[in-house]
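Is it possible to get an amino acid sequence alongside its tokenized fold?
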Amino acid sequence: MRLWIRDPLAILAEGAERGVVVEGARIAECVPRGGAPAAPVDAVFDASRHVVLPGLVNTHHHFYQTLTRAHPDAIDKELFPWLTALYPIWSRLDPDGFRVAVRLALVELLLSGCTTAADHHYLFPAGLEDAVAIEVAEAAALGLRMTVTRGSMNLSRKDGGLPPDSVVQDEDEILADSERVLGLFHDRSEGSMVQIALAPCSPFSVTKRLMRESAALAERFDCRLHTHLAETRDEDAFCAEIYGCRPLQLLEEVGWLGPRTWLAHGVHFTCEECETLGRHGVGVCHCPTSNAVLASGFCKTRELEAAGAPVGLGVDGSASNDSSNLMEGVRHAVMVNRLHYASAAAVSHLDALRWATEGSARCLGRADIGRIAAGKQADLALFTLDELRFSGAHDPLAALVLCGAHRADRVMVAGRWRVEDGAPVGIDLARLRAEHGKAARRFA
């Protein structure tokens, strides 16, 4: 079936002023101004009310944290005390609670125009050994693309790390399970719906051996590597005290400095370290909202891009954001970066949209998503400008960001509508809210 998404109000693509033709799971052609599809179409969707974007790509999240948003034990704390307060609470996570937490996070992302999400799940208390399989199943049910990162922690307080003993795993257990889930779920093909990445959590919660062995597994299975790095000054101090080096030097020592790697946050890299990351093709996921909530600092987005490092966008955990809305994150990225660079011209709405689409796709190592172009996957987010907040707006693309768009009217993933008229297809939102609220009360 060939579907013409016709005559959008605006579209973030070159030569597609009259829209795009979707055939199967791919974009078959872009229709330029004054043109028409090159071949007959089977159906037409009138997009004259819609601003069309490539599906947004979220490169860092912690889905389980939707259960502990605005938690009184963690409000108004910076990262280390925030984690110390929440680790014992998160240790009570079970499969039923995790499943509904994942579902809610995915629905939130989908409604914000997100079509691909990377979740960094590193918490495996007893009973939650099948967390990766749960995430894969929930994403499949909703029709989103996923990079599920098999996260890990094996350095507890007794070993000099930050997490309590109750939430860490044995090193060999982690590596064996990493190999298992790679064998089960990792799909490297074009248009794949599920990929696996390996993601030892952070320098203060994993050992060097785990980092090295994870890198070796990534080479064997051709998968990505992900971790938190350079998020806070406390992390710098920890690395200096325990390892006698800076976080990026540690990354190089364990064999992670290469194009297979993307990092979350990257707040405290020096300009010289940005150059190093660019030379080695290491991606950085910018998390403007959580970095603001936890007062972590500013990511050097312009320096990283100038050096050649892919820059993507992520909402980060829903207990440090405290939402799962990537379109809001696009707006926050503009505001935070203009503050950081003290210039209104430093970062535009188009820069932030690029990070959330093409840049994020590069971080995940995917050339088949992130752009509207013939041959790319048909992942699209369509927004209307009907709300009062948009009245008087003259540039539709800028209006999405500057006027605060936060909910898509239509979302397509792999050529199939997954959001219609502002609602996720096949999901009872009232029931989901009730089930999730009930699960969250266990963590009060």
Remarks:
- The longest helix spans residues 95-111.
